[in-house]
Amino acid sequence: MELKRQSDCPSLPPGWRREEVVRQSGLSAGKTDVYYYSPDGKKVRSKPMMARYLGEGFDLATFDFRTGKINHSSIRKRIRQDSSLSLPIRQTASIFKQPVTVKRIREDTDSKTKTDLKHGPQDPPKQLFWEKRLQGFHAVDSSEDILKALDLPRNVQGVGPELSTENILQSISAALHMNNGPVMGQGNNKQALSKNPGANIDANQPHIQQTMITEEDIKRQEMKVIEARRRLEEAMKGLL
Amino acid sequence: MELKRQSDCPSLPPGWRREEVVRQSGLSAGKTDVYYYSPDGKKVRSKPMMARYLGEGFDLATFDFRTGKINHSSIRKRIRQDSSLSLPIRQTASIFKQPVTVKRIREDTDSKTKTDLKHGPQDPPKQLFWEKRLQGFHAVDSSEDILKALDLPRNVQGVGPELSTENILQSISAALHMNNGPVMGQGNNKQALSKNPGANIDANQPHIQQTMITEEDIKRQEMKVIEARRRLEEAMKGLL
DNA sequence: CGGAGTGGTACA
DNA sequence: TGTACCACTCCG
């Protein structure tokens, strides 16, 4: 009768062991508890407690205590829930407790294709072209001089009505922060959208046309990163 | 240095004593352990152990081992969480995500008496006179004959619009199941309520007038219980 | 008094 | 509603 088992945990510093124990009785019988043992033998029963043992040196942000694995998507989830980093959303009368947008779902159990308005948990409403609400806002440095925005590569083209370079950058950076999946840009063509914006916009993708990234592009970017790291290293030496 | 003290424990059969010992050192310094001593001097260190000593004859379900007192609310809490035993509740349009009832709270931190609508966790809404939604439903026996409802004592009077004996019984039994506190009936007078039902109803109390229970009533009820037990004992003998 | 094991609760 | 955390019980 194998009720517990200890194992190494590759996501943690060496010496830590992980144990899974099945509850044998009581109301919670059958549930499992996960414990860890530190290299010095201390039993650790929760993530906060583990953080206390590991100290500042080890970042548990992406560590899933239950599974014992690093969860790379969890970090984005956490950011998304930080309201200071949420997108500006459509402003509507607050008496509507339901999100204003609804989602059509398909009842797969039924043979005919039935569509229905789904209630319950939904994605929060997204405003198309919300970036325009940020127009006129700028990041400034400590002396309140406006920081120059980045330039866009020539092959990154905006999709939508009168989007500034700034808007497009906001759109891209938001998509990088908010999306769990790949960030690819809009699949539809530029002409159709400028006539009827919103008709076919994918609110989860930035407002840029899909762009072909070549091996060349990747190489060039890698070189830039390497060069930047080299310069940072130089600068650090200067500080010692 | 008084670290322990023994005392009688009125919630237990006579002869049982209770002792409280403060832990002096270690990680748990300052915490207390509670022990009991049975009439024959045996030390008892836990509730399961006590149940073993007392046997079937004494019900420890409501006994709080730590405090040594009977806790009437604990057993009812367990029942209340069984959704099959919840009251029929008001049916309202589901678009209202907020409970329809609100609770006024007093901001005690403020010197003026401020009232405010409290959001967040609240008691579930209670429908006044919800019993009427059960009208026409009856318990039946295995041959689907309707079981005769109980009769009410003459001094138990309904409070509310056209409540049947059945409604009143439902109301009383629900209150006995759901309430943590004493079940006393409505404090207001019958006349006012039949004109404006709901005006001053206490939804936590059954819809009966407050009734004086005399020593006589209690005696009579005790006799009934004793008689019922005697007859049960007879019947059990017949089965052997 | 320690600690394994379960319960209870706040939070998402 | 489920889950994570931690308080608590019970017994060594």
Automatic annotation (TrEMBL), chains A, B:
<dbReference type="InterPro" id="IPR001739">
    <property type="entry name" value="Methyl_CpG_DNA-bd"/>
</dbReference>
<protein>
    <submittedName>
        <fullName>MBD2</fullName>
    </submittedName>
</protein>
<dbReference type="Pfam" id="PF14048">
    <property type="entry name" value="MBD_C"/>
</dbReference>
<dbReference type="GO" id="GO:0000785">
    <property type="term" value="C:chromatin"/>
</dbReference>
<feature type="domain" description="MBD">
    <location>
        <begin position="2"/>
        <end position="70"/>
    </location>
</feature>
<keyword id="KW-0805">Transcription regulation</keyword>
<keyword id="KW-0238">DNA-binding</keyword>
<dbReference type="InterPro" id="IPR025884">
    <property type="entry name" value="MeCpG-bd_2/3_C_dom"/>
</dbReference>
<dbReference type="InterPro" id="IPR016177">
    <property type="entry name" value="DNA-bd_dom_sf"/>
</dbReference>
<keyword id="KW-0539">Nucleus</keyword>
<dbReference type="Pfam" id="PF16564">
    <property type="entry name" value="MBDa"/>
</dbReference>
<dbReference type="GO" id="GO:0008327">
    <property type="term" value="F:methyl-CpG binding"/>
</dbReference>
<feature type="region of interest" description="Disordered">
    <location>
        <begin position="106"/>
        <end position="126"/>
    </location>
</feature>
<keyword id="KW-0597">Phosphoprotein</keyword>
<dbReference type="Pfam" id="PF01429">
    <property type="entry name" value="MBD"/>
</dbReference>
<keyword id="KW-0158">Chromosome</keyword>
<dbReference type="GO" id="GO:0000118">
    <property type="term" value="C:histone deacetylase complex"/>
</dbReference>
<keyword id="KW-0804">Transcription</keyword>
<dbReference type="InterPro" id="IPR032343">
    <property type="entry name" value="MBD2/MBD3_p55-bd"/>
</dbReference>
<feature type="compositionally biased region" description="Basic and acidic residues">
    <location>
        <begin position="106"/>
        <end position="121"/>
    </location>
</feature>
<dbReference type="GO" id="GO:0000122">
    <property type="term" value="P:negative regulation of transcription by RNA polymerase II"/>
</dbReference>
<dbReference type="GO" id="GO:0006346">
    <property type="term" value="P:DNA methylation-dependent constitutive heterochromatin formation"/>
</dbReference>
